[in-house]
Amino acid sequence: MHSSISRAVESLATRMTNAAGNTYILLVVLTAVIAWAISGFYLHFSAQWEMIIGTASSVVTFIMVFLIQKSQNKHSLSIQLKLNELVAANQLASNRLVDVEGMSEDELKVIKKYYAKLSRFTGQEENPTQPHSIDESHEAHSIKKDMEDELDDIKNK
Known about the structure:
Layout: H1 2-20, H2 23-42, H3 47-89, H4 105-123, H5 134-137, H6 142-155
Helix pairs in contact: 1-3, 4-6
């Protein structure tokens, strides 16, 4: 039962996301707002007139916030999976980065610092276009060891 509800919600969210980004829906909403604004002259800009747009915009905003977040989560996950596939398929890439989205912010900062060091290191080489990865390039250098030690320190805190 849960699976069928989840699929139904997913389907509804996808249709709503596609509809919300449609040019015709934008024109319909724009037309409705213009009609509401013009109707203010006939309704003497009453409190009820204001309440109509206020309530409608609040409901739409509330729904859209969650719809956008769901869409963003799905989009982010699909991009992360594509990147994971590329990292996993590349022999020179470090498989440590396959689950990078699961790392803490402190761990990510350590890896970022490592790549800055890697950039400086490759800039000193005769052939700066040679590819390097975490695993491949620094087996004989302390940069990789320093990074691994920092990551271990963070995990052991």
